[in-house]
Amino acid sequence: MDFSPGIFKEEEASMPFELTGKTALVTGASKGVGRGIALALARAGCDVAVNYHTDEAGARATAAEIEALGRRAVVVPGHVGRSQDVDQMLAQAVAEFGRLYIWVNNAGVQTWKSLLELEETEWDRVLTTNLKGTFLCTQRAARHMKAFGGGRIINIGSGCNKIPFPNLVNYTASKGGIEMFTRVSAVELGPYGITVNCVAPGAIEIERTKLEAPDYAGAWGPVTPMRRIGYPADVAHAVCFLASDEAFFITGQTVYVDGGLFTQGPWPYQGEEAK
Asked: Which domain holds residue 155?
């Protein structure tokens, strides 16, 4: 079976959800999943604010692709774990678009190190970006959306929302926190017409994950029930659905986009028909 990239190409993916006239901000959209989400929202009709912290060139490349699709784009720099940066990001996006309807909390970092070796500074860095960043961005976005009668907030989780990832203790803690934060936020913000959901990707091939294994697709494709790895477009389609009118009554949920990878438990009797 072919586990190589190209089985599902982002540029060939259809976009069934209609978001024309909507505006969005995607954090960490310079590359990887964030870039895929930003481009998918643009294909669905959104104008998009592209956030970055360190990769300005990547953010501007994402914005250029959005504009090539006929949508407006604005690049908004800032560290999601700093309140003043988040306030400035929101102000820039609103100045450009008038209001924001969709906010995607995608920015995240990780440290590959065991619990016994992890430094306090490494714990703080990951929790500040991933969990505190989600809090600050959700709070600011929700205050803005409340004033306009509603909106969509979508947080990006991980397979480690469901199972522990060894050597990623701070990352796993942050993503688990994001899932419960999503639920509480959904309960509090529902009366204002704001939905809050979480999308949890599985083995997604991006720039970072390609460095994790010499053959990333070959490592993860065979152990995924769908028998392939995921791509940014897989995650982006789930985000676009949750941002659409069709998902208006869905809130507080976590959607796993993992081809069934983290649904299955250890099972020693793998039949020939599944190979």
From this structure: 18-204+231-258
